Amino acid sequence: MNSKDFNPTEKVETLITKFFICIFISCLVLSLFLHELGHYFATIIQGGEFTMYYLSWEVITPLNNTSILIIEFIGPLITIILAYFGIFLVEKTEKYKIFGISFSFINSMMKIIEYIPNMLNIYKGGDEYWIAQILQINEMVIYSIFFLILFPVLIYTLFKIRRVYSQPIKSILIMTSIFCLYIGLSVLLDRLIISNPEIFIFRIVFGLSIPFIILGITSIVLFFILLYQNIKKANLH
């Protein structure tokens, strides 16, 4: 048998490690931070005033529909870029593969779990919903377009995990659990910030809530520490 041929029994690499879980969490917090920061800078560049809580935000300055459309669109665009950047890391780099798995899984899941309840009329909201409202078209059209863009990324990532790593089902369940827990906690934090603006730790600084700033900076620092550690590990092999 050629050594390059794939043999499922030879899958010894696993995602179920403390190191990968730390990478996954840092990529998760960082992805959400970059998505929301995109809305913030799109507003500031156009001369608007912006308030970022954690998951939700509002533009304080009256802007025209074109400006609001750009602000709404930039977040999903960043998510799509990060999702496909993850695929690039998996396919083109061995050293950063686990970062790629994290980015592609997180950023495809991040929007898909929002699209499904919208499509089923359980929930109405999110960037894509407001894009549809501004363009005055059926929101299902926008959801379907973005869903078709990101769903292949999720399928690719799940297939790659199943093909390359041992214990793929357990790995996917752990990743999904961490993802859902973080989103749930983020929703709770978002509600707390909005409901308690008088509490110092929930205050808004330069349009951004203090928790958003702290968690965002922490995710960046942790990401680069883990990236450095990963490079060191790769160079030892």
Keywords:
single chain, 237 residues, mainly alpha, two-stranded antiparallel ribbon, two-stranded antiparallel sheet, 7 helices, 4 strands, 4% strand
Concise account of the structure shown:
By secondary structure, the protein is mainly alpha-helical. It has helices spanning 18-45, 65-92, 97-119, 127-135, 139-164, 168-195, 210-236, and strands spanning 50-52, 57-59, 204-205, 208-209. A hairpin with a 2-residue loop joins strand 3 and strand 4.
Account of the 3D structure:
With 237 residues, the chain is mainly α. It has one domain. The protein is 71% helix and 4% strand. The chain is built from 7 helices and 4 strands. A two-stranded antiparallel ribbon has the order 1-2. Helix 1 runs antiparallel to helix 2, helix 2 crosses helix 4 and helix 5 crosses helix 6. The longest helix has 28 residues, at 18-45. The chain is globular. The model is unreliable at 1-10 (pLDDT under 50).
DSSP strand tally: 4
* Strands in their spatial order, largest beta sheet: 1-2
- Which structural class matches the secondary elements? mainly alpha
Distance between the termini: 25 Å
Task: Give Rg in angstroms.
Answer: 19 Å
Instruction: State the shape.
Output: globular
Low-confidence stretches: 1-10
Order of helices and strands: HEEHHHHHEEH
**Helix content range:** over 70%
H/I helix tally: 7
Number of domains: 1
Return the average pLDDT rounded to an integer: 89
Oligomer: single chain
Largest sheet geometry: 2 strands, antiparallel
Task: Tell me the strand percentage band.
Answer: under 5%
